[in-house]
Amino acid sequence: MVDAADPVPVDAWTAAMRRGDYAAAFAIGDAVIAARDPAERDDPSVDYYRRWVWDGRAFDGEDVLVRCYHGLGDTIQFARFLPLLSKRARSVTVEAPARLHDLLATIPGVDRLIAFDHAAPAKPFACDLEITELPQALRATPADAGAPYLRASPAALPAGTIGLCYSSGDWDHDRRVPPTLLAPLCDGARCLSLVAEPTELAVLNPAGCPFDIQATASLVAACALVVTVDTMIAHLAGALGRPTWLMLKAEPDWRWTPGARDTPWYPTMRLYAQPRAGDWASVVAAIARDLSDFQAPHRKAAHGLPH
């Protein structure tokens, strides 16, 4: 992943990724790596999420440490490439937040998981890679490591339950949807909150979702559909292969193509981008219209009718 601070226009890399021109994106990445100052590698004076780790060194037959310096969603998205890395490296150790370990343990090819301690990161291995650098290092595309690739035991939920996530945390407040806008989605549908806070929405769990990723993954795995903003829940649902409708701001993150309805990252995901900045009402209205068609088979099944 190319950072905005790198010495080439990040817009060119984003455009190449969005149009699926991965060869062009990798060429830009090569130029970025060649232009970097080796002294700035894994620079402790820089916030973790802004650091680069891989300097282009060979990793075939080496003991590799994969550092997860970005957010939980980024780690989940790029974890798909770990089995590809394991086919080339001597061993693969993943340094990730401990709360992700149970999920990451379901991915083949990981020899060891160690907890990421911000105050005391692991010592370097023969080759270190940040997890978002894996596509560049492996020359791998979403098609080379498709979803689903995570597993979780489904929780006991009523058939047809729809999971709702309206909060994106503090990373980008523009990704949040006012929860009151989602109230119409709860009319005539069994809905579940996937946000770890109390809600006034008419959901099965008004106290909110547990602040526990494994428990959340079990809930997501049991949902017939997940409607979510661009946050960890979106990547979790996509990585588990659940039908996912993603609510996006008008100018979304690099990995989502404005105007597209699908994404190569998650084949079970449908995109709903704002037509204008801040216009969540139009997004929710479009979802409400599509939800009627989505629920029809579940209503028939509930009444024992043929599909």
Q: Could you explain how this protein is built, in words?
A:
The chain is α/β, with parallel strands linked by helices and 307 residues long. The chain is built from nine helices and nine strands. Helix 3 runs parallel beside helix 8.
Q: Number of DSSP strands?
A: 9
Please tell me what the overall shape is: globular
- Hey, roughly how much beta strand do the residues contain? 5-15%
Mean pLDDT across every amino acid position? 93
Helix segment count? 9
Task: Name the descriptors.
alpha/beta; 4-stranded parallel β-sheet; disordered C terminus
Summarize this entry quickly:
By secondary structure, the chain is an alpha/beta fold.
Helix and strand arrangement:
Blueprint: H1 10-18, H2 22-35, E1 63-67, H3 72-78, H4 82-86, E2 91-96, H5 101-104, E3 112-115, E4 127-130, H6 134-138, E5 162-165, E6 191-193, H7 213-222, E7 225-229, H8 232-239, E8 244-248, E9 269-273, H9 280-302
Parallel strand pairs: 1-2, 1-4, 2-3, 5-6, 5-7, 7-8, 8-9
